[in-house]
């Protein structure tokens, strides 16, 4: 028998706030976290907007000296993980065994900003000016490594690197590990801090980024005038816990993870498969894993990047999977407010999915002004809606043809 897995803690650092409560309040109020980028020099870059984390002070969460030895994405991960661990009421060696606590945090790119900075130093001033911590500052697995050190977690330690599906794949893979008895608790999610000159130049030349100069309306998923995503940064971490372990210690439970599906397009390095074929299979697998009929899904937190192909193909995939029920569903993209947090997106959107269940709130898709005839679902336009939510599906799709879908359910013993 597979073990049941619940979520007992949440933590986040996002463009909308440096904790879950402020981020969620802004989501419910339809506030955009997009603004002109200020942490990098955008004079040579066509696109000037980003979803930067604002006012983040790493020393509030970790030793100042150790923070200087971490990449920014690892700092976000440590902060979000510590908030989630505290929220869960976990205390190492008190109500949880270190060897039974794992960490599984994904990152699509890792510390590219630190790599760029050190490479400039190498070119300008030579080898001896390169920071000796350069490698551990930028390799993607280091968010998991740093969190395990900070928390004292000695169990499974891993990192799923699947581009923009990294956070969701990490949660799904951690879910599987607990189901099969490999851990009692896993700190899971995603972290990213890749708002750099090279990243923005690369995405811009790929024509993936929005060229809309208005920060408040640039990210407009499912709108006819969408023209690309807005890059963002942050971290979203949840505490996955085996049900009996959580009940035994009297933990608060946000919801239950009941399904996970992961597929590959085998089609193109950046373009999704036609008609969202791979995404549809991921959703079908997640529903099969959850062992529920498709009609039980109340809300889909869509990948919804605001790019022409993603939003079209994801809509087509939803209609293929859910048939007539697709038109009864509520579907929204919180990236309209956060921007696209790449490998962190799945972790943050898992939190939004759980809070939608907990509070009975459907997050909106803001900037939805001009309907697209081919995109004809209920995208919760512009304003959050109160509605009982029992089961949520969350999608994450990444370059390389990675597709991940998670199913969360209101907890009932």
UniProtKB/TrEMBL annotation:
Protein's UniProt name: 3-oxoacyl-[acyl-carrier-protein] synthase 2
Record CDD domains: KAS_I_II
Catalytic activity: (9Z)-hexadecenoyl-[ACP] + malonyl-[ACP] + H(+) = 3-oxo-(11Z)-octadecenoyl-[ACP] + holo-[ACP] + CO2; a fatty acyl-[ACP] + malonyl-[ACP] + H(+) = a 3-oxoacyl-[ACP] + holo-[ACP] + CO2
EC numbers for this chain: 2.3.1.179
Root EC class: transferase
Catalytic residues in the record: 164
Organism superkingdom: Bacteria
